[in-house]
From TrEMBL, chains A, B, C, D:
Membrane topology annotation: Multi-pass membrane protein
GO molecular function: channel activity
Similarity comment: Belongs to the MIP/aquaporin (TC 1.A.8) family.
Cellular localisation: Membrane
Keyword annotations of the record: Membrane, Transmembrane, Transmembrane helix, Transport
An annotated GO cellular component: membrane
Membrane-spanning intervals of the chain: 76-96, 116-138, 209-229, 241-259, 288-307
Principal cellular location given in the protein's record: membrane
Name of the protein in question: Putative aquaporin
UniProt keyword Transmembrane, yes or no: yes
Domain of life of the native organism: Eukaryota
Length: 319, 319, 319, 319
């Protein structure tokens, strides 16, 4: 029947669009605006084979390497690269210090009156305001991940395919490096550290830093799925609010994890940002924790995600 | 008549969903999203026996121990555990001090220029921003209690069953302990105290601390019911605002109770958080006040709740 | 067919109005309010020749010099001039310093306790609150650019014609000069510098300053298109929010770029503002970077804009 | 025809209400609330003669002195007087200083750590929050001008008649004086200055102060028309937002103009407030600039207003 199929077409792009975008645009009744379905562009071969597959990519689809031939995915990766470049430049620039800048407390105000406290506060505020605006800009096309942590998490939740993950992360990391080159030019020196990407390993062991990085990424991913990515969530708020909530949790964890322990400047949450800031200065031996922390958090989150009682396989439901 | 029964069915799931969730999702006319009814999952035996019982669980239902066989309740408890772990980690990390850190005022600005004032302020702000985002994430499934204080209060208000209360509190406390282990790893030492969970018993008597804990929990529960839990409340604001009001009252009481008296670092309001922070450091002799305070406040609130002139037994109403 | 043409007429004025305005008014069903189509007034010759051309001006139209004869464009330029005068006056006045005012850090708080940090913070806040209100005022007529950076960016994205760009930029620059004369009168001296327009070339090389200026303008343009200018964007938020997002990104970049490097007072983002402040004080040798930075950023953005997979030529679509 | 006249009656009160009110109440379909048409009460003789004249008063109407016999205008003037008294008292009380209180900077924080900076900041915040609430209260009756600057601007834009302007300004100034008497009683001394109304003429020439006063009033009027008064503006935001925007621009200009130049405490923007504060202390020789600045700004704005291409004479349109 015509009415039914029309209804089907109505819901279909919505679900598909919502799967890996950090902000879902409202339905457009007039239909004049053309949206791209974040992860499964309509004209891709993957999609045509299984039109009913929506929120979750089937296992064999995940490993379908033909996605590397999809021009749209490459374009999305370029957009992620540009946004990651801008994000890395501004949030690293505002957190940039000469290596000796972090001071020990000398007054009764303790740590709260030193740059050790204020630097991550201002970095967190910069993220809180910059990231939502970048997500708004990218959400209708690439989905606005910007951050490899979120790209990994959507992959392990089977929302995007392996080629898409690889292209996005390469784009984001390359964008971070471009931002790093810009910082290098703008600062005129390589002798600095960036808040969130600096661990004084003589005071803080790498294992400790990894624990904080893991917990921070888990909180970020859990909230990002709860307020934006999970298509099964009943939204309590306007879609326009989701990017701001992600900005808040990013800024909050960046700030709250940064000043408690001497020698540790806070969780990174974004490996591309630290990669870029190391391109601008020098690579430390502990850079792997900024990649392994998000990776482990994305894996653990995927387990929680499938255990969640709200989960219903959309294919089971529609059959 | 058909119209009447349709209207009845329309209101029914709404009431049941709202009873123990800290944020009520809007009704979903299309019906594509599947929500769980926070406390009485549709397929539980309790529910099938008395489908009209909604906001309040009957007395014999409260003690029906078959709820322990309900798989959904176990899954909800796991989600509460995960959220409690993240909440305990971040809010304890930001409030963590070496035991000697709290300073006496030395300038004319008095207490307002010491870490004794700023530490609970920043802890309160962290709660204000973190807790609402976690509630958004959990509200459609477990209801987003996160905190044993609120779980106890919903039990005494006959909104959830005894098995649900036990499973939730065990989950929240275990999550607190997991968060404590993460703090332990990340800080690399057991020699610290956490704001809101530390009482200097040589200066402040345990009885005094219990009085503040009780008053703080009562304020929290009263406001949480007023803005989110009580199904009889006429809401003046969008449902999306409720979690933020709970975050604000949590942060406000945490901060406002913390700096007035020397040797007392503020009301806990969340026994699972203190339990976790003691796992990370050491258990003090006065830990019982963080459990007895919320328990007494939940009992007293239940009396206020049933005395409230707005209360109407839903079964009386429908008969 | 009737349905199609009706749909076409519905979209037409909307698209044309949205092309170069920083805030699109909602459609007015009653029709009592008369709006002007920002860039292509209905009665202009350009428009009558190609009524289907909407979001993008055709290449030969861009260079149609008859736009200089359009009285409305001149009136719009006068409005841009007035707004630029007020914007330049207030945001420069609040950022005005005697040349020696920027202090080096002397306490453990480092840069965060000096006027070097607070001055751009307050300048950024002034922009965040002033610019959206000016955009609201101008959006229904000239589009509310106020800033040559955004006018250049809309030109390179083929949203406005060459004559419109020239008239706007001349108006904005002349308005900046008028604001500069007012500052000159109000301050009673030419011996000062203005934050965002001052580079100590003995410490910071001009190339470094250009790098920051370019990155800042790119971020501004990218976000301005993402949240307001790009007609292909699916808006996630109310149109009323766009001007505030532009205010936020302006204030954020102004502040975040200003205090990291000694001798550099932050990105300008608005060449007309610096032009005006130099009229009030003296022109430095490096003023060209405040024009070349936005120019290069607008060019680079135009390339990203046309690469974006969301781009569909509206003429191709409607044929 | 009936349909046409119904449509006419629908639009008519809307336009008339919007002409000189700083917040337009939403249309009330039920009709239970009774609003007054700001400037031309329905039962006045002026109105009955020319029912089609709405947004703009005809030239001979402007000078019709029979308005002085209109009882409603007198009632509105009393309301303006009461609001002006409250506004003057609170915003002057918060800005009140002993003459020696404004300090020179002594630390590296410069001006930002002195009462010279904080006093106008808190005054501006008080205005930002107080004025919108007063406008909400008065908008349905007198229009909520409160401030002679806005009354002058609406007169020169031909929105109100000469008698209305005179009655309003007399009421506002008398209210300012009443507020001044209250300050005098509450402070117990005449030996103080009020921020925004004090110029140290030994340091700042009166001509310089007039330049800032003029620019500040022009910004205020321009934005007030853009966001609230101009009936031709396409509103982008809820009507509830207009008073807040006016509060923001008032607070912003008050604060931003106040601390840059030593000896000048900021633009007044409201001659009635300064008049009241001089009643409470003593009248200086330069009080005329607080009246001439707004007068000149209102005149210049009227020219811009009629040049604006959006302007269409409503009588031409309806004929």
């Amino acid at each position: 029947m015509r009415g039914t199929s029309k209804c089907y077409e109505y819901n279909e792009p919505w679900n598909r669009r919502s799967t890996a975008s950090l902000a879902v645009p409202p339905l457009d009744p007039g239909g004049s605006t053309k949206y791209y379905e974040g992860n499964n562009p309509r004209d891709s071969k993957i999609d045509l084979k299984a039109p009913a597959a929506t929120a979750n990519v089937l296992l064999f689809e995940v490993l379908d390497f033909r996605g590397f031939l999809n021009l749209d995915l490459w374009k999305f990766a370029v957009l992620e690269c540009v946004a990651s470049m801008m994000n890395t430049f501004l949030t690293s620039w505002v957190a940039l210090h000469p290596p000796s800048a972090l001071a020990s407390p000398q007054t009764e105000l303790g740590i709260y009156h030193t740059s050790t406290f204020f630097s991550p506060l201002f970095t967190g505020l910069t993220m809180t305001f910059l990231v939502p605006l970048l997500i708004y800009t990218l959400a209708p096309s690439s989905g606005g991940h910007i951050n490899p942590t979120l790209t990994m998490a959507t992959f392990f939740a089977r929302m995007i395919t392996f080629p898409q993950m690889v292209l996005y992360i390469v784009g984001q990391t390359f964008g971070g490096a471009l931002g790093g080159f810009a910082i290098n030019t703008a600062y005129g020196s390589r002798d600095f550290t960036v808040g969130g990407c600096s661990v004084n390993t003589s005071v803080v062991s790498v294992k400790d830093a990894l624990a904080i990085e893991f917990m921070g990424c888990l909180i970020l991913i859990y909230v990002a799925f709860g307020v934006a990515l999970d298509p099964r969530q009943g939204r309590l708020f306007s879609h326009a609010a989701s990017p701001w909530f992600i900005g808040i949790i990013l800024g909050l964890v960046t700030w709250a994890s940064a000043f408690t322990r001497e020698g540790y400047s806070g969780a990174s949450l974004n490996p591309a940002r630290c990669f870029g800031s190391y391109v601008a200065s020098t690579f430390p031996s502990y850079h792997w924790i900024h990649w392994f922390g998000p990776f482990a958090a994305a894996l653990v989150h995927a387990v929680i995600y499938y255990l969640s009682p709200a989960w219903v396989d959309p294919r089971t439901q529609s059959s």
